[in-house]
Amino acid sequence: MDIRQLRAFVVLAEQGNYRLAAELLCITQPALSKQIQALETLLGARLFNRGRQGAQLTASGQRLYPEAQTLVGQHMQFQQRALRVVKGEAGRLAIGFGLSSFHLAPQLVASFRGRFPEVAVGLEDLPSERQYQLLLRGELQIGFVRLPVNAPLQASALLCDRLVLAAPTALALRTETLMRQFNSLPLLQLTPKRGRGLSDQSLRFIAANQLTPNVVQQAGDIQTLLALVAAGIGVALLPHSVTHIAPAGIDILPLSGEQTEWQVGIAWNPQQPDALRDNFIQVALAGAPGDKPPVL
Prior knowledge:
By secondary structure, this protein is α/β, with parallel strands linked by helices. The protein is 42% helix and 24% strand.
């Protein structure tokens, strides 16, 4: 059964006149008659009585009309939605983010949803290394990740994050003496499995500044590290972004020297064409703070 036949049936039922129905369908009257006859043959029943009063529905036509009207309406809705999906104006977008983008990612998603309200967005907190894997597998369309990324992934920088030392307020550690006292402080670390990027950044900072840290404990997530710091167990090297989630009882102290900063941006897989993802990238780059950074 051709959807054109159903549309012809619905329009003729509504107009009750072959000439008017043909004009609305942008076809000739003979073509309309042919479509109606083909549908009647397929169904094995007359749908219209033809006479001086025009085309009037038979009993069978009256019973089938509501269902045909629903199907035609659904077909039109599907066509309209399909066009929006193809243009990247509807659908679902899976996005990964981390602590460094804890504040920025929701802002950009809200801005994007303001322009494309028919898009459903899924946000998931994931380490950058895990996001790289999911982007390559097509399970994420966008990742807010630590840069740089490896080919075939592509990325654009949005902001910089930097290392800080989270210390118990009761320790009363002074910033100007921090580096001199660092080796004597009980250091808490994130397990490399949970945060390879932060772990490697911390190791590079330690090596660049020729430090010998006193590691006393590891934790599986940053929230646990912060809880341990607040409890006075030790200090921790963390991204400055922890200021968004740090509990009371913690001082955030800036660090100086080499290997204290890194870039954070959005990454995607250009090998998988996706208009919806590309629309998000445009919104994100337009809404990012500061100068627009280059694509990496």
